[in-house]
Design the sequence.
């Protein structure tokens, strides 16, 4: 199996685990109040959706073989856009939809923790 295919499979698993975390935490907050559940889903999407777009962007540019400097700039610009998109979704959820702050932030942070910890679990073969 090639390295690029392996990294694509790891990225898919990571996105799937993040989506499961969004759904699970959102459903738990729905038990308290539907507004809390909607806020939790908004916070989860603020972390998950930019990651999904960034990974899709990276997969599309993986086919091409640009020079090393261009690849670094593409990655840096993608990361900046990911942060801006996440911030925009959080602001829209808080200001536009009047989301509850606690479930929004808890779900957002939880999905980011999954993003950090999941690759270690996915890559652990033993």
Sequence:
């Amino acid at each position: 199996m090639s390295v690029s295919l392996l990294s694509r499979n790891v990225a898919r698993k990571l996105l799937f685990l993040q989506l499961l975390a969004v759904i699970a935490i959102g459903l738990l907050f729905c038990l308290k109040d539907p507004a809390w559940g909607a806020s939790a889903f908004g916070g989860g999407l603020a972390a998950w959706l930019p990651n999904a777009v960034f990974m899709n962007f990276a997969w599309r540019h993986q086919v091409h073989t640009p020079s090393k400097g261009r690849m670094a700039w593409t990655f840096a610009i993608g990361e900046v856009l990911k942060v801006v998109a996440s911030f925009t979704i959080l602001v829209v959820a808080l200001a536009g939809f009047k989301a509850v702050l606690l479930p929004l932030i808890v779900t957002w942070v939880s999905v980011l923790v999954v993003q950090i910890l999941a690759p270690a679990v996915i890559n652990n073969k033993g």
